[in-house]
Design brief:
Elements lengths: L2 H6 L8 H10 L2 E6 L5 H11 L7 E6 L2 H15 L7 E5 L2 E3 L6 E5 H10 L6 E6 L7 H20 L5 E6 L4 H7 L5 E4 L6 E5 L8 H15 L4 E5 L3 H16 L9 E6 L5 H4 L11 E6 L2 H4 L6 E6 L2 E8 L4 E8 L2 H9 L7 E5 L3 H6 L15 H10 L17 H13 L11 H7 L5 H13 L2 H11 L11 H9 L16 H8 L5 H14 L4 H6 L4 H20 L13 H9 L13 H21 L4 E4 L6 E4 L6 E4 L17 E9 L3 E9 L1 H12 L3 H6 L31
Parallel strand pairs: 1-7, 1-8, 2-5, 2-6, 3-5, 6-7, 9-16, 10-12, 10-13, 11-12, 13-16, 19-21
Antiparallel strand pairs: 3-4, 14-15, 17-18, 17-20, 18-19, 20-21
Helix pairs in contact: 3-4, 5-6, 8-9, 14-15, 16-17, 17-18, 17-25, 18-21, 18-23, 19-20
The chain binds adenosine-5'-diphosphate and magnesium ion.
GO molecular function, one term: hydrolase activity
Protein name: RNA helicase
Enzyme class: hydrolase
Length: about 750
């Protein structure tokens, strides 16, 4: 889009500019409700800049997602004709493209939370816009409470009052307004044309991808021009659908239909790929944009006339009682369905094809989506609130917009106690403050601090980066496949995939050592690194090159974090940079894991560092501990309110077995998932010596005492403390987790 085009389109919010400016001038806070695409995200900040609100401080705009912050900042810089990072900038975890002179700064809600720890009055901002509030991300909900307090304190303690604006795409303005002391609400009407809703005769949840592809193709063949927007649940589905659309189209006779361009849209798409949906297609080409939930409210695609709504979304659910975290495909809410349909009526009357029945919509869809704070683990959130050290607050009575369940809060307190982050009275400890200083989740930050003591920081970082990566192995090449298909039957090709041997040979050698998944991941990482991160090396070990490059990037970022907070290897071994390590281990890992060519001394050193790594991981992942049942290779989780019985997932690599064929008594796991039945995924054997003190600590928990959460007698003045940044930001996820 050129500058000339924009002049012609006046976005709806611009027509309310004067009223909004007046309201912001006269009130501490305001709520702006506007249909998606009305200009809330890109225009509001500029309207306030033009009204000179940036003279006394910066204008901050929060986004729930990292890509959101980056793409919008780019767009606004473009609109203003300035270079990104000057007048308009952004700050996300691990990346800050702003200066003290920046006027408009887009940042993730997690980043703003961390900034609160550096300066709890957020003095540098004159205005904060909490954008996309309807998404109700966990971080946004925490910010509601934190900023509500801050409004009061800025009035008392600073000569520059703070202005807060909450924007939302759905009509929940009254609720926000009541919470923020009955502040004014603006409704910006969108340009919305009527949309015909067409329901399916039967529900298609079982195979919604095929149903969506078929519907999109039918629209292309039968309906007048206009782009199609299809809602699916994740990256893998989107890629599959696009492949199928392309192959169907190429199989059709030349002149049976016009050209169709299929484009993906999801949060893990690189920004340069994302902007493709903003570009107009060649004349006469119809586009079909296959998207996750991001197109529901956060990204507006122009030209859409047809929407295909599968009625489902991928959502995370956490059960505090069992500690089970699941990513499930669930029905969207009715509010969501209305939003999706609305995407079809932006430029002219449109049609929305719902792949579910009217009876389902009316009888079974929830009216609204449960906010994340009520369906997620609260360990990071509670640690964050604790690290603010607010004198008058214990987390159970924090002023939440929608309070999370008491059981989830108590479970978070228990876990923080087991991590030594709070003491038996619920007061944050020095360890807790150090953990809060690391922008990673509490389990990992605790593991890193322990690793520093034990001299294995580099190893723990590598393993974390690999665990954060969804696709480490190429399809059909995981350790589970290797075990089933070859390692145990003398190298026959896997019957399930029918692949010929090759890449798996090297992996098999590693899997055969039965050291568990974490150590396997470490060895694979090091083998790939020592072979120069090459494509060939990835192939040699059956690794997915894209996944490995993702792991490499995460590892680089984690290394940056560790350097920034100067987490030294204060233990037995001096801190080793990856480079130093690289030199030392390169020689060793020539024969896959290196142990063959090691001298006895080196072998002992290798065993020591692996041991240290498992120890550090055990301390950090104490809340993901499981014990084997007697005389049986099933496990029961330890620590949460009631243990959960679970099997080792078939994708697990081998574990050492004793003479009776029993696997280790104690393991830590990375995920407890419930597919057909509960499974532990990615497990690491650990030792009773490491586990038993932790289990004793668990047994001593007194939840009543923990949840009182009083601040120590010597109350800190104003809540200042040495912590620089904070551990509250799961914003960087691996690909595929939906919207
Ligand atoms: P809202 O936040 O109210 O949903 P936005 O401010 O995001 O609205 O978008 C306003 C308009 O700007 C929309 O019509 C959208 O299509 C357009 N727009 C937003 N980002 C971009 C971009 N990166 N490139 C081109 N157009 C964009
Ligand atoms: Mg927006």
């Amino acid at each position: 889009m050129t500058k000339g085009d924009e002049k012609e389109i006046v976005l709806p919010i611009r027509r309310f500019a004067e009223d909004i400016i007046a309201a912001v001038r006269d009130n501490d806070s305001a709520v702006v409700i506007g249909e998606t695409g009305s200009g809330k995200t890109t225009q509001l900040s500029q309207i306030l800049l033009e009204a000179k609100f940036a003279e006394t401080g910066q204008i901050a705009v929060t986004q729930p997602r990292r890509v959101g912050a980056v793409t919008v900042a780019k767009r606004v810089a473009e609109e203003r004709g300035v270079e990104l990072g000057t007048e308009v900038g952004y700050a996300v975890r691990f990346e800050d493209r702003s200066t003290p002179d920046t006027k408009i700064k887009y940042l993730t809600d997690g980043t703003l939370l961390r900034e609160c720890l550096e300066d709890n009055l957020l003095q540098k901002y004159s205005v904060i816009i909490l954008d996309e509030a309807h998404e109700r991300s966990l971080n946004t909900d925490i910010l509601f409470g934190v900023l509500k307090r801050l409004l009061r304190r800025r009035k008392q303690q600073s000569d520059m009052p703070l202005k807060l604006i909450i924007t939302s795409a759905t009509l929940d303005g009254e609720k926000f307004s009541t919470y923020f002391n009955d502040c004014p609400v603006f409704n910006v009407p969108g340009r919305c044309f009527p949309v015909d809703i067409i329901y399916a005769m039967e529900d298609h949840f079982k195979d919604h991808v095929s149903a969506a592809v078929d519907t999109a193709l039918q629209i292309h063949l039968q309906q007048p021009p206009g782009d199609i927007l299809v809602f699916l649940t994740g990256q893998a589905e989107i890629e599959k659908a696009i492949q199928r659309i392309n192959s169907e189209i190429s199989g059709m006779p030349e002149d049976s239909c016009g050209p169709l361009l299929a484009l993906p849209l999801h949060a893990s798409l690189p920004p340069e790929m994302q902007v493709r949906v903003f570009r107009a297609p060649p004349e006469g080409t119809r586009r079909v944009i296959v998207s996750t939930n991001v197109a529901e409210t956060s990204v507006t695609v122009e030209g859409v006339v047809y929407v295909v709504d599968t009625g489902v979304v991928k959502q995370k659910h956490y059960q505090p009682a069992t500690g089970m975290d699941s990513l499930d495909v669930v029905p969207i809410s009715r509010v969501g369905a209305t939003q999706r349909a609305g995407r079809a009526g932006r430029t002219r009357p449109g049609k929305c094809f719902r792949l579910y029945t009217k009876a389902f919509y009316e009888g079974q869809m929830p009216i609204i989506t449960l906010p994340e704070i009520q369906r997620t683990s609260l360990v990071s959130a509670v640690l964050y609130l604790k690290s603010l050290e607010l004198e008058d607050m214990d987390v159970l009575s924090f002023d939440f917009l929608d309070a999370p369940g008491q059981d989830a809060l108590e479970e978070a307190l228990r876990q923080l106690y087991c991590l030594d982050a709070i003491d038996a009275d619920g007061v944050i400890t020095d360890m807790g403050r150090r953990m809060a200083g690391l922008p990673v989740d509490p389990a990992l930050s605790r593991a890193l601090i322990e690793a520093e003591k034990l001299g294995c920081v580099s190893e723990v970082i590598s393993i974390s980066a690999m665990l954060a990566t969804e696709h480490v192995f190429s399809a059909g090449q995981g350790p589970g496949d290797v075990l089933r298909g070859g390692a145990r039957n003398g190298g026959m090709p896997s019957s399930s995939t029918g692949r010929v041997e090759g890449p798996r040979e090297r992996l098999r050698e590693l899997v055969r050592r039965a050291e568990g998944d974490h150590v396997l991941l470490l060895r694979l990482w090091e083998a790939w690194r020592d072979r120069g991160y090459s494509r060939d090396a990835a192939y040699e070990f059956g690794l997915d090159l894209r996944g490995m490059n993702f792991a490499k990037e995460i590892r680089r970022q984690l290394e940056g974090v560790v350097k920034e907070v100067r987490l030294h290897g204060a233990g037995k071994r001096p801190r080793e940079d990856e480079d130093v390590l690289e030199g030392r281990w390169r020689k060793l890992s020539d024969d896959v894991d290196g142990t063959l060519s090691m001298s006895p001394r080196q072998r002992a050193e290798d065993a020591r560092r692996i041991e240290a790594t498992c120890h550090a991981l055990t301390v950090g992942f104490v809340n993901k501990l499981a014990r084997r049942l007697p005389r049986h290779n099933g496990y029961k989780t330890v620590g949460s309110t009631k243990g959960q019985l679970a099997q080792l997932h078939p994708s697990c690599s081998g574990l050492p077995e004793d003479d009776d064929g029993l696997t280790p008594e104690w393991v830590i796991y990375h995920e407890l998932v419930s597919t057909s039945k509960p499974f532990l995924r990615q497990v690491c054997p650990t030792r009773p010596e490491y586990v038993l003190p932790l289990v004793a600590k668990m047994a001593s928990i007194n939840v009543l005492r923990l949840s009182r959460g009083r601040i120590r007698e010597q109350v800190r003045s104003g809540g200042d403390h040495p912590s620089k940044t904070n551990a509250f930001d799961p914003e960087h996820k691996s690909s595929g987790a939906g919207g």
